[in-house]
Structure formats: C-alpha cells, structure tokens
C-alpha cells in the first residue's frame, strides 16, 4: 500500500518540463549498494531519473541503470534506518505498525555518507613512483580515489566525491568531519587542531 509523500520543498519546479513531484510512494527504499532500508519523505520525477528525499536527510537517485529497491514491508531481520522510521511515524506519514522492523542507528551511519576528502583541493596525495595520472590517495580515508579538475571560478584539481574508506579518520568531538583540512603536519585533521594534539590523558584519540 503506497504511503503519502510530502511536497519536496527543494528541487524541481512546475516550470521545468517533465518534472513532477510524487504524492505517494512505497514505505521503504533501499539503494542498490546500501545495506539499510530507509523511508522516503518526498520525491521528484525528473526526465532522466527519480530523486527520493529520505527522512534521515540524504537524497537517493533512482535511475534505470541503478534502480532503488522498494518495499512496503522489509524482509525479516534486514536493518531499517531508525532516524527515518522515527521521523516518518512522528510526522504521521502513516499508521504506527503493530510490529516495528529491525531499527538501526549504527556507528557506521554516524560516519559521514561522503568522505570529507571529497572535492577537497588539499586532501589528497599523488602516489610516488611513475605518474599515476588522475589517481590520488585520500588523506582523510586512505582510499585511492580518482582526481578530477573542477572548473568554475576556483579551477582546482581535487578528489572526486566518494564514500569514506575504512581508514576514515575519527571525527572531531566538536565538529565531527565538517572542517577536515590538510594540517601543517601534512595529515588530515580538524581545523580546530584536535587531531594534531598528541594523545594525552582524557580525550582518548590516537
Ligand atoms: Zn534513513
Ligand atoms: Zn576519502
Ligand atoms: Zn573548514
Ligand atoms: Zn575540531
């Protein structure tokens, strides 16, 4: 049974041909490479793809070559985003179900969905040795990522947008991953200097 969706608020306009906000959709969505189900708050059909907005924040692109999975009930035991379910039910998007799915709010989800090294002009290093062309090591997560020249008024080379690799640096207790830059040490760290301090009594980071 479809669930009512809210107006998208951002994105789309009645002036753009072929662009329509959806008024109803499935209860749960899961991205093609996502381990968790989420709940849609709104959706806009653009000519080339459908863009879902999730209750927990991010947008999910739904296109022919990478379709989003849809479900009214999630398969048994599969994790469901607790933020999405809490907000959707709190907002009265539909009836509170008799049984709730396996709600998850995992530390993994606490990590930023995109690496702070994404699109940063100083958070990568080209590997030593023969020219690797357009590949660099991300200083924030350690992964090898593609580099691209972004034009615009900056005109700089930076790492492409990517999900954080397993070596993602810990978030600053104050600013999380919001202001990660290349520090004077040459390593990635928060602009406040938290990552630069030697690990000493109390704050517990290495
Ligand atoms: Zn969610
Ligand atoms: Zn990275
Ligand atoms: Zn900053
Ligand atoms: Zn900080």
Overall pLDDT: 84
Strand order of the largest sheet: 2-5-6-7
Tertiary shape: globular
Low-pLDDT runs: none
Key attributes of the depicted protein:
206 residues, mainly beta, 2 domains, four-stranded antiparallel β-sheet, 2 helices, 16 strands, binds zinc ion
Notes on the structure:
This protein is mainly beta and 206 residues long. It has 2 domains: 108 residues; 73 residues, no CATH class. Helices cover 6% and strands 27% of the residues. It is built from 2 helices and 16 strands. The strands form 6 sheets. It has a 4-stranded antiparallel beta sheet, with no helix packed on it. Strands 11-12-13-14 form a 4-stranded antiparallel beta sheet, with no helix packed on it. It has a two-stranded antiparallel ribbon with strand order 1-3. The longest helix is centred in the middle third of the chain and has 9 residues. The protein is globular and about 55 Å long. The termini are far apart. The site of one zinc ion has 6 residues, from loops. The site of one zinc ion has 9 residues, from loops.
What does this entry show, briefly?
The protein has 206 residues and is mainly beta. The protein is 6% helix and 27% strand. The site of one zinc ion has 3 residues, from loops.
């Amino acid at each position: 049974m479809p669930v009512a969706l809210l107006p998208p608020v951002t994105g789309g306009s009645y002036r753009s041909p072929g662009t329509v906000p959806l008024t109803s959709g499935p209860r749960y969505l899961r991205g093609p490479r996502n381990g968790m189900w989420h709940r849609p708050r709104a959706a806009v059909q653009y000519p080339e793809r459908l863009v879902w907005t999730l209750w927990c924040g991010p947008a999910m692109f739904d296109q022919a070559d990478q379709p989003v999975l849809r479900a009214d009930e999630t398969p048994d035991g599969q994790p469901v985003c607790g933020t999405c379910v809490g907000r959707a039910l709190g907002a009265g998007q539909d009836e509170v179900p008799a049984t709730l799915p396996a709600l998850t709010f995992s530390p993994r989800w606490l990590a930023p969905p995109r690496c702070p090294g994404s699109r940063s002009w100083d958070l990568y290093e080209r590997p030593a040795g023969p020219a690797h062309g357009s590949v660099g090591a991300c200083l924030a997560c350690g992964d090898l990522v593609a580099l691209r020249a972004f034009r615009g008024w900056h005109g700089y080379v930076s790492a492409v947008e990517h999900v954080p690799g397993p070596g993602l640096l810990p978030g600053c207790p104050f600013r999380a991953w919001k202001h990660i830059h290349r520090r004077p040490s040459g390593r990635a760290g928060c602009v406040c200097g938290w990552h630069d301090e030697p690990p000493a009594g109390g704050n517990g980071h290495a």
